[in-house]
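As the next step, I selected for study a record pairing a protein sequence with its backbone structure tokens, which the following lines show:
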Amino acid sequence: MSQEMKDSMMGAIENVIDPELGIDIVNLGLIYDVELDDEGKAIVTMTLTSMGCPMGPQIVANIKQELMELPEVKDVDVNIVWNPPWSKDKMSRYAKMALGVR
């Protein structure tokens, strides 16, 4: 998969906002990896801010919706992993500033 494709997938996912924090899930550092196989199946490896995150299913649905808008993507599979665990260190500088995290 080209870096350009990876960038456009990450760009699409940046439209998905964490409803509790109001920041997109890419800047929050929740997306660990994106791949696209030869059949056009997008595979997203991500985590959530907490194991009991009630917004998990909504976030996954939004990721699928955004990625399906890319012409190369025919199907989307989202894998939620808890390892490595998410921490504030994974947030971008932008997210930390927006949330007042140091």
User: Anything to note?
Assistant: Strands lie at 17-18, 23-24, 31-36, 41-46, 75-80. The first strand starts at residue 17 and ends at 18. The CA atoms of residues 60 and 101 lie 25 Å apart. Residues 3-84 form a domain with the GMP Synthetase; Chain A, domain 3 fold (CATH 3.30.300.130).
